[in-house]
Design a protein that fits this description.
- It is built from 21 helices and 25 strands.
- The chain is an alpha/beta fold.
- About 1% of the residues have low confidence.
């Protein structure tokens, strides 16, 4: 019987379309699931969407939709993107699924009845984007200590979970299971920053909004999103709140939860404690993966540096995107993505290394052996170097994947591919082909190349499944054994197919810029009303006005009306271009406090990027709205 392997992603929050940094997690988990299937495991891979909470209730209201209608649309978009990038999940669960809702109700009741949950009152600071509460000592300059965005003061009746009751037991579990939290740096962070200082009781319900699973015995309350969402890992495979189904009993505990490092606290402290309270086994491992950054910055719609998987797939193909995000994100440190670096890696690794190797080898086999796999002859010292490199790559590939070091595993494969390309240059098949007496040697060389490609394709299949299938098709084989020499001589190769064509960087970047400008132009088109249209308070509150300090200012070259301002919003710095050059000199503005529209879509003015707009009055004479010099940076203007 196959050994089971249960893997999950964190379920994606259904508030908006996920960017490539979010999609990376689904691709990462998928590559591990595919690897385990390749190794013969009985794999269950679950992903899905987290669909309750105040943020979603507000988003739905802004969109003029019922919350369920809103999340149906966003969840459908998330599933479409996961499918687009080839995520081979066994179940896509949603926290609005009926069986999940009923199970969470029972779980809350059970924890309350056994004394783990009690009723009280919460007063503190709330971060809506993170759905998290913080104390006065945790908040940093009025901002969330985790995401840096402003928090609001909240006071309301709530149910709380007695976290301290299980803290010592959790600490003991972590000490006795050193691989429970990975990487090691994440474990130290959780232990030193949260467990050792002492756990505070956790707020588990809310009364200030209605979009959530109701508490059955107190309908003023909805169950807080973190208990609701975390329970998906067991409800999604058949835990009904009291007992597990056959599927649950087969696959639980999870072998690994793949999650982002920003939600590690919820998964390594709260989730294990909930399971302890329920008397259920803890997951074997929680892997907090790093982020995929845009250049050196975290992706943010307000910064205008967001990239989406569907756009990237149009430019680079599914496997091009999968390869990049997996290879560029190390085990324990953040990865980076820009269009320029994607093009460079695509051309060097995929077109020049992998694609060129397959193309050259298949073409030479077609030319010199009429498209059939030649006989393998004696093995020379040079052949042995290639074979050993491929075999060693497989050993390192498996050891890396067993530790979830995916980028390391890919590096080993591409090192083997580079060695195969070097082998071509060393053996010069085109020279051997000129001498009939060298035909047996030529046959061995091409056989070794074809077999090296086959084994590398096997290793590539978890990361680039479509590309691996194309290689197997060209080699006319389904053989997945790793032993060198399994390719059958005399087999007629399939039809040759180019895997990756080189990308013209200048041409593609120009195309991307043209599409971006067209999108901005379409988004800016609005019908002008005959009079001044009235708006509601919700629409007004949707405009995020923030205080900022002008820390630098200069004229925009060849643009008489424009000044380029560098603004400090307290929680970040950004650049804004403003048409006020006729009315102000740059040196007059430095040090002034202004109001900026912080959630305005980025735009380019005379080729200079602008991330926001400062407030000013007048048309014939423009006057910037200046604030008191003592005004803190980053305050919300209401």
């Amino acid at each position: 019987m196959k050994e089971k392997f249960y893997i999950t992603t964190a379920i994606a929050y259904a508030s908006s379309k996920p960017h490539i940094g979010n999609t990376y997690e689904a691709i990462l988990a998928d590559s591990i699931a595919r690897y385990k299937r390749l190794m013969g495991f009985d794999v269950f891979f679950m992903t899905g969407t987290d669909e309750h909470g105040q943020k979603i209730e507000n988003k739905a209201k802004e969109a003029g939709k019922d919350p369920k209608e809103y999340v149906d649309g966003v969840s459908g978009e998330i599933q479409r993107l996961w499918d687009l990038v080839g995520t081979s999940y066994d179940k896509f669960m949603r926290t609005t699924d009926g069986d999940h809702v009923e199970a969470v109700k029972k779980i809350f009741e059970r924890l309350y009845e056994q004394g783990d949950i009690y009723k009280g009152e919460y007063e503190g600071w709330y971060c809506e984007p993170d759905e998290s509460f913080f104390t006065d000592t945790q908040v940093i300059d009025g901002k969330c200590p985790e995401c840096g965005r402003p928090v609001t003061h909240a006071k309301e009746e709530a149910y709380f979970f007695r976290m301290s009751k299980y803290a010592d037991r959790l600490m003991k579990h972590i000490e006795e299971n050193p691989d429970f939290i990975q990487p090691e740096s994440r474990k130290k962070e959780m232990v030193n920053n949260f467990l050792k200082p002492g756990l505070q009781d956790l707020c588990l319900s809310r009364t200030s909004f209605k979009w959530g699973i109701p508490v059955t015995f107190d309908d003023k309350h909805v169950i807080y999103v973190w208990l609701d969402a975390l329970c998906n890992y067991i409800t999604g495979i058949g835990f009904d709140g009291e007992k597990g189904s056959q599927t649950y009993n087969k696959y639980w505990p999870a072998d690994v939860h793949i999650i982002g490092k920003d939600i590690l606290r919820f998964h390594t402290i709260y989730w294990p404690i909930f399971l302890m309270a329920l008397g259920e086994p803890l997951p074997k491992k929680i892997f907090g993966h790093p982020w995929l950054l845009f250049g050196q910055d975290k992706m943010s719609k307000s910064r205008g540096n967001v990239m989406y998987a569907d756009d990237l797939v149009r430019y680079f193909g599914v496997d091009g995107v999968r390869y990049y995000v997996l290879s560029e994100t190390p085990f324990a440190s953040d990865g980076s993505i820009t269009y320029e670096t994607m093009i460079a890696r695509y051309n060097s690794d995929l077109a020049n290394n992998l694609g060129n190797l397959v193309s050259r080898t298949v073409a030479m086999t077609n030319k010199y052996f009429d498209g059939t796999v030649p006989e393998r002859g004696e093995i020379s010292e040079l052949d042995r170097e290639l074979i050993d490199t491929v075999n060693n790559a497989y050993v390192k590939f498996t050891s890396s994947m067993d530790e979830y070091r995916v980028s390391d595993a890919l590096e080993e494969i591409f090192n083997a591919l580079r060695r195969a390309n070097k082998y071509i240059d060393e053996t010069t098949p085109w020279t051997l082909a000129k001498d009939e007496a060298s035909k047996p040697r030529l046959a061995s060389v091409l056989y070794n190349l074809l077999e090296a490609i086959r084994i590398c394709a096997v290793m590539l299949s978890p990361f680039m499944p479509s590309t691996a299938d194309k290689i197997f098709s060209q080699l006319a084989t389904e053989e997945r054994e790793i032993e060198f020499g399994c390719l059958i001589s005399g087999t007629r190769l399939g039809e040759a197919e180019m895997l990756f064509a080189r990308i013209d960087e200048a041409k593609l970047l120009a195309e991307i810029e043209k599409e971006r400008e067209a999108k901005e132009k379409n988004e800016s088109k609005v019908e002008k009303p005959e009079g001044v249209a009235q708006i509601g308070i919700d629409e007004f509150m949707g405009v995020e006005l923030r205080t900022a300090e002008i820390i630098a200012c200069e004229a925009v070259p060849k643009a008489k009306k424009l000044l380029k301002l560098q603004l400090d919003l307290g929680y970040e710095k950004r650049q804004v271009v403003s048409g006020i050059a006729k009315y102000y000199k740059p040196e007059e503005l430095v040090g002034k406090k202004v109001i900026v529209v912080a959630n305005l879509s980025p735009a380019k003015l005379c080729g200079v990027e602008s991330n926001g707009m400062i407030l000013a009055s007048g048309e014939e004479t423009v006057r910037v709205v200046f604030l008191d010099p003592e005004t803190p940076n980053g305050e919300r203007v209401r």
